[in-house]
Every structure is written in C-alpha cells, then in structure tokens.
Write the structure tokens for this entry.
Amino acid sequence: MIPAAILGRYSRSLADIAFEKNIEDKVVEDLGVFSDVFSSVPDVLGTLDSPAVPRTSKEQLLDKLTAQYPIDPVSANFLRVLLEHNRIRYFNEILEKFTQMVKARKGVLDAGVITAEPLGQEDVTRIKKRLEKMTGKRVNVTPQTDADIIGGTVVRIGSKIYDGSIRTRLAEMKRRLAEV
C-alpha cells in the first residue's frame, strides 16, 4: 500500500507546475497515454520498476517510450523523476490523484447517474445542468444503467449519494409497514 503522503507530494508538485505553465489538461492527456501503454504492456512498468534492471537501461527504455509517444517536457520530466526516485511503480495511483487535483482546482465534479433504462442525450444534458446549478460547479456526468433500481435515479457525486430510486422507496415503505 502506497503511503498517502507520497501520492499527495508527487501529485501536488506536478499539479503546481502544470497549472503554473497552464498545461494541466495536456499533462493529464500525456500521462493518460502512458497509463494506456503501461496497462497494455505491463512488462514495461515492471521493467522500469525492477531492481534487477540497471538504471541506465531503464532510462534508455523511458527515452525510447517518450520518443515513440511524444509528450510535453513537463510530463516527460515527471516520468523521469518517478523513475529516479523509485516511485514509477506508483504511477497509476499518482496519476489518479493528480487527475482528481486538476478537477478540484478547476471546479469540476464527476457524477455517476444510475437509471433503470439508458438515458438519452437530452436527459443527460438536463441532469448535468441541474447538478451544476445545485453544486455551483461544472459536472461531468457518467450515465449507467441498473435494472435493479426499478425506476428513478441514483446520483453519486464524490462520497455523496442521492437515491431517488423506486427500489429504495419500496424498501423504506416496507420498513415503515413492518414497524406498524
């Protein structure tokens, strides 16, 4: 388990530099490319993290990767820093934390909207506008379906859940009737 202090330190430092240079979206995109590379070829990350592989070989591999997948110098330098400090194994966790920091600094929230039936684009737009008005922030809506909720909507924003599903209403009604 990675210590939260490490996640925070690297993520915050990268966010500070990226916002200072006004390239935060580019850095998120760049590191997303490398996340895809590391996910599709896990041996690459394993090699970069392996104590059995000489540092010069790791640096050469990283240089080849950044040449094959050109990224902003800030993003490339960040990967080198992780490699140099033996933190490359935490790349995905740091990227996730960094992405959360970027969204928070830009005032963007992610919302999962669960319905029993798929939503049309008009419905998603309407829900997005309503959530933006409610929170005072920009909201990215990710629609999901779950037939088990029967009907209604369940919205998750961070750790908050707004449950307007029929399943929950029926369970509440059952609970109340059982008390009588």
Summary: The chain has two domains: 4-104, 107-179. DSSP finds eight helices and four strands in the chain. Residues 103 and 109 are 7 Å apart (CA to CA). The first helix runs from residue 4 to 20.
